[in-house]
Amino acid sequence: xxxxxxxxxxxxxxxxxxxxxxxxxxxxxxxxxxxxxxxxxxxxxxxxxxxxxxxxxxxxxxxxxxxxxxxxxxxxxxxxxxxxxxxxxxxxxxxxxxxxxxxxxxxxxxxxxxxxxxxxxxxxxxxxxxxxxxxxxxxxxxxxxxxxxxxxxxxxxxxxxxxxxxxxxxxxxxxxxxxxxxxxxxxxxxxxxxxxxxxxxxxxxxxxxxxxxxxxxxxxxxxxxxxxxxxxxxxxxxxxxxxxxxxxxxxxxxxxxxxxxxxxxxxxxxxxxxxxxxxxxxxxxxxxxxxxxxxxxxxxxxxxxxxx
Length: 308
Known about the structure:
By secondary structure, the protein is of the alpha+beta class. It has 2 domains: 2-174, Jelly Rolls (Sandwich), CATH 2.60.120; 186-301, Homeodomain-like (Arc Repressor Mutant, subunit A), CATH 1.10.10.60. It has helices spanning 9-18, 136-149, 160-174, 186-201, 209-216, 220-229, 234-253, 258-267, 273-282, 298-301; strands at 2-8, 22-23, 30-38, 41-48, 51-55, 64-71, 74-78, 85-87, 92-96, 101-105, 109-116, 129-132, 288-289, 293-294. The chain has a 7-stranded antiparallel sheet. Strands 2-5-10-7-8 form a 5-stranded antiparallel sheet. Strands 13-14 form a two-stranded antiparallel sheet. It is elongated and about 90 Å long.
C-alpha cells in the first residue's frame, strides 16, 4: 500500500520497475500515485509526465490489468493487436498480464490500473484486450477505487477480501458485452409509424383510416388489424389526439366568445364546436395533468348559443 507517491527520474523508474513496468533509458519522468495491493491484486491511480513504459511478456503470469484513462492521451501497443490503440479519457482497456504491452504518452497523463490474477475466470474477460468507451459500471468502478484510495482502506483489513471481490465484479460488469438491440417486428413498426403520423396530423380534419393507410403504403385491413392487436383503433387514436390538442389549447387560450371556440375547434381538426364538445366529453379525464390544471376542460366550454 502506497499513498502520496511522488518520485522523479531514477526513483520514478525504480518505482515503475517494482510494478513490472520499465521506462525507456535516459528518460526523465515524474510520477505521483496512490496504490492498494495484496497478493495477486492491485489498484493504482497514477499520474506521470511524458513517458514510454514497457510491460514485458511473461507467459507464466495469469490474470489481466485493466487500464482506465483518466486524463491526457496514451498510445497502447500490445502483442495481441496489430495497430496501436489510442486511450482517451474514459476509455477502459483490458490487457492480459502475460502479454507484452507498451504505453506511450507525449504529454502528462493520468490513469487507473487494476490488476488481478483471478479475473480470467470470468467469461466477460475472455479476450486478451478489449476496449469499452461507455459503461455505467465504469463510473461506479472509478468512484469506488477513488473512495478507497482516499480513505483508510488497507490490505490488512479483515474486509479487504470483500473489497477485492467487489472491484473484480465491477470490473467484469464494465467489460460485459451490451445485449443486442431488440428490433421491433414489422407490425410494431407499422403501429409506431401510424401513431406518430396521427400525433403529427390529427389536426387535419381529412385524416382518416384510408388516408393513413395510403400514406403508410398498407391496406386499411392491415392497419386496422395492427392497431387492434395493440388494443386500439385508428379512429380512437385520432379522436384521442384531437381531444388532447383541443384540451391543451382551451386550457392555454381561455376562450371568451363563440368565435374563439370555433377557431380552436377548426385548428384541432373539428368541423364544429358541437363535435369538439362531444369529443371532449367522451375523452374527459379527471384529476390534473402536469402543466394543464384541471383536464375536465369540456365542462368549462359551456353551451354555444348557436348550438355549433
